[in-house]
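Appendix B, example 12.
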Amino acid sequence: MSPRRGRPYAELTSAEVHDAVRGATLVWPVGSTEQHGPHLPLAVDSLLAEAFAHDLAARLDGFVLPVVHLGARSLPQSGGGPAFPGTLYATGAELIRYLAAVLRSLARLPFARLVVLNGHFENEALLLEAVDEACVAGPLHDREVLVFSWWSLVDEAWAREQDEHFPGWHAEHAGHTETSLVLHLRPDLVRDERPDHKNPPPAGVYAHPLDTAVASTGGVLSRTSGASAEAGRRLFDHVTERAAAEVRRGFGLTRPTGAGESPRPRP
């Protein structure tokens, strides 16, 4: 089955937008533009975030906000940083200010729930900081806001069943998982090379100066051989089915809406 397509927020007119989004769920995909080895496009993180966001919005009868294509600077140990050409980024402070400004503009709309769906590893902490400022005594204090990275919904045991060489998410950059997902979603963008890196970096370690020839193989941190569109389809379905279920129940973390608060969004 082809991935579901949600309703694009940006295709509404100004006259339509308030009534259209009243009580609804908005899904905001946030990605990046960075190197993903010699075989994948620079747009991987944005492409995946947007695809997951569309499927989720379709399941929840919500709207997909315009994807953020520029994210935080990738770390040398996870995405190669500036060591490989093509990566575009904002500094942490700049990105937080930008995200916070967008959240303030969104707060004028009468939606009930905002889901921020992240596709770039280094965005995560900055996203959480910007959203926290907007939610705690901020413009979104009365709305339900959920933030997650798509890979956080994949049980590592499940991942290892699909790929016995799974190195952990910190080292999955441009590897088997992302290659399989892009083969499923946009096979036209995947080049023929399937580079492998036999020694994925350890999690939570920073080294300077980094020997990029040792730390990666052309920007790939693990293996890509064996990647397939079928593996990508299974992973995509696994994530989207769980995402819809978890968002509907607020991941079991949100409190019920009380009197005088914003209405719960329609399912």
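The domain at 7-252 is CATH 3.40.50.10310 (Rossmann fold). The chain has one domain: 7-252.
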